[in-house]
Amino acid sequence: MESGKVPNEVLNKIVLSKINKFREDVFLRPGIGEDCAAIAFGDYACVLSTDPITAAVNEAGLLSVHISCNDIASSGVEPLGLLVTILCPVGTSEAELEKVMEEVCITAAELNVEIIGGHTEVTSAVNQIVLSTTCVGKGKKSEIVLSSGAQPGDSIIMTKSAGMEGTAIIAGDFSYRLKGLVSDDELLHAKSFIKSISVVKEGALAGKFGATSMHDITEGGVLGAVWEISEASGAGIIINKDDIPVEAVTEEICKVLDLNALRLISSGCMLITCPDGEGLVRHLQSNGVKAAIIGSVTANKNERLLISKNKKTIEEIEPPAADELYKLK
After folding, report:
1. At 136, is the secondary structure helix, strand, or coil?
2. PurM-like C-terminal domain: from which residue to which, for each copy (predicted)?
3. Where are the beta strands (DSSP E) in the chain?
4. Does 47 score more than 80 pLDDT?
5. Fewest C-beta atoms under 10 Å: which of 1, 221, 237, 309?
6. Cβ neighbours, 10 Å, residue 38
7. Using CA atoms, how far apart are residues 20 and 111, in angstroms rounded to an integer?
8. What's the rounded Cα separation, in Å, for the pair 267 and 163?
């Protein structure tokens, strides 16, 4: 298998199919496109999500906090606590470990999330520092938003712009590949995206507004997330390619490195479905969150189309493969 997420077909056949489902208090279980698990405690639910950081070196501590908190936010729940596992390669200095831990603690404090446990180890099993974080949140069971809740007729809303996390990682970890190809100002702007990869704010706003489903856009980019919401919800999706926001610097970096911005890891962007798409966009924008309607949900579950009216093209949206970022490894 290639680097990146295990393909969905393999995930279903080898991983998900083997999971036993027998606890009545578990009401949100693993599935394609689902970001979280949830356990019922009376009228409330404990919501959990776990993720590793393997594709980035710089700012790995910051990223590890945001990606897990973003998953919890996609269920409309406030993240409360984090379990952090840090695996260091043999030869890691104390200063390197301290830098990662400072990033983790500072980022968590900014989100009002407490570090509640974890594990730290030096091992020859890894060749760079690997972080895995598990986030815990709490909310009313009746208010949990699922990735599988998209309904025909819903608008599809996307926050911020495609490829934000990937753009920041490339500018930080692969700047040598961009030397002489993009300007210093463009590189600095690209690096600044790392400050905007939280979707906790829009998750809370959209959840209270009436979102039917939410999915933070990570590996596989916008099109990967679109496919996963369609698969999870058993509904069709039509996306207007010309309406997907992409920053100019992202387009430029992807052009010179021959990458697809719509398949590039995009933490910081949330995909949301909602019956009142225009109202939700206004609500998000009035609260300082950039948002745009990029498509709609249809009743035909086999309909997953990417349409460009400008270029007069129609493409079928394929299942997510290895993220574009891995092409640079």
Report:
1. strand
2. 151-305
3. 26-28, 37-41, 44-53, 78-88, 114-122, 130-140, 155-159, 213-216, 236-240, 270-274, 291-298, 304-308, 313-316
4. yes
5. 1
6. 23
7. 34
8. 8
- Determine contact, residues 303/226, Cβ cutoff 8 Å: no
Question: What tens digit of pLDDT does each residue of 189-245 get?
Answer: 999 999 999 999 999 999 999 999 999 999 999 999 999 999 999 999 999 999 999
CATH 3.40.190.10 at 8-143, yes or no:
no
Identical fold between 8-143 and 147-328: no
Q: Closest Cα partner for 162 from 240, 237, 223?
A: 223
Q: Using CB atoms within 10 Å of the CB of residue 260, give its burial: 0 to 12 exposed, 13 to 18 middle, 19+ buried.
A: middle
- Of the candidates 59, 254, 253, 263, the one whose C-alpha atom is nearest the C-alpha of residue 172 is 59
Question: Residues of the chain with pLDDT > 90: what percent?
Answer: 91
Nearest to 104 by CA among 69, 152, 55: 69
Is CATH 3.90.650.10 the right assignment for the domain spanning 147-328? yes
d(CA 38, CA 45): 6
C-alpha distances out from residue 222 to 124, 160, 198, 229, 293, Å: 35, 11, 16, 11, 13
Paired residues of 79 in beta bridges: 137
R_g of the chain computed on alpha carbons? 19
Per-residue pLDDT at 5? 85
The gap between the terminal CA atoms of the chain, to the nearest Å, is 15
Q: How many CB atoms lie within 10 A of CB 177?
A: 14
Strand partners, 291: 159
Token readout for 70 is 């973003």
pLDDT for 311: 84
Residue 55 scores a pLDDT above 80: no
